[in-house]
Amino acid sequence: PGGSTFMTGIKSYTQAEIDTLTPYRGLTVHNATTNCINYYFPSDWFEACGTCRPMPSKALAGDDQAFDDTLSMTLGANTPEQGTGLWTVQSGDGGSFDGDSLPDAVFTGQPCTIYTLAWTISNTCSSNKDLVDITFFATPTDAYAGNDTIVEGDTASLILNANIPEMGEGFWSVVSGEGGYFGDSTIPAAHFTGLTRTEYTLQWAIFTVCDTTFDDIIVSFSPCGLPFTDTRDENSYETIAIGDQCWMAENLAYLPSVYPSDLGWYNIPYYYVYGYQGTNVAAAKATDNYQNYGVLYNWYSSLTACPNGWHLPSQVEWAVLTDYLGGINVAGGKMKSTRTFPDLHPRWDSPNNTASNSSGFSGLPGGYRVYDPNYGSGSFGSIGEKGRWLSSDELWSYSAQNYTLSYSLGIVSKIPGASQEGFSVRCLWD
Question: N or C: which end of the chain has fewer CB within 10 A?
């Protein structure tokens, strides 16, 4: 039998083939079974094992790699100088090569999977391999829903502005708020429609099979710039946006009951109309002072006086207002109505210093109900001269912080007042 050429002049045979030969002295062959040289001398076989030549190149599969934003990558194995290379998947499901004999093959896998790949270089002498780990996380792009937005006026829709996913798919949802819906919840620039006077928390989520990222945005369809009607008594109020806040631009006039100025207590809700001493609500509402300046509230009643969706502002919220207007030393003039004597009420006494009403707050001097602890009774004062508005914060027992505008000053004064005294209320949108 004849064998393949191993080296020049030396035939290669398997052990089984060698056993069938008729040997002669000096016969030399390559044993492909043992990878050794067999020679016959003088009357028997001898074996000399040496190194097969040429051996295959040493396999180098490249560095381990991990990817967050792709499911395909280019491998980086070495090109064999001796032998041929072959890529195989040692572990991991669903992976494939665009050419498994190419050192720089493109490998495509599945998300959330770690692959161990083998690059094997082999020839007739031998083979060797090197391993590389390739991980596809498919981590979704960090979601960004855009900026919180207040939509003023009678419009109750807007175009959203979330980021476009580089990895994953996006989806809008309503976290809180009634009656809102999307034109197409799968696009970043979705058209969202809601209800006026409603605040929504919207969520933009980007997801892959590996994970999901989220970001929330608050969208408020503000009543600012539109009249607001209190359904409790059908009183209507102008509203104004000042910075990021929405204020009523008139004093609250909610009057479920009314008391003379000489009645009142710390922790019982009492309502007063400047100058009115009776207890008949209808008669109190018919007065000019009620029509012009609204109601004076003791602190206890003011905490629940604002209509649904509005609230009594805190000291922090008052500070947001005055800081936005340049600080308490200049904010007063920007908050005061320019109506000044000899204009008819509602108006300020002259000189109404620095009044510009550039903020639109339209502050008017509704006066207040003062309390005399020596006599245990109260009286009205300072209509036309001062407007004093309550905050929701109690400074100490039976004393609340209020904010005062004066006809003679352009500042905002922070003055504590006894909780049983009566002051005006401006409500802030929730």
Answer: N
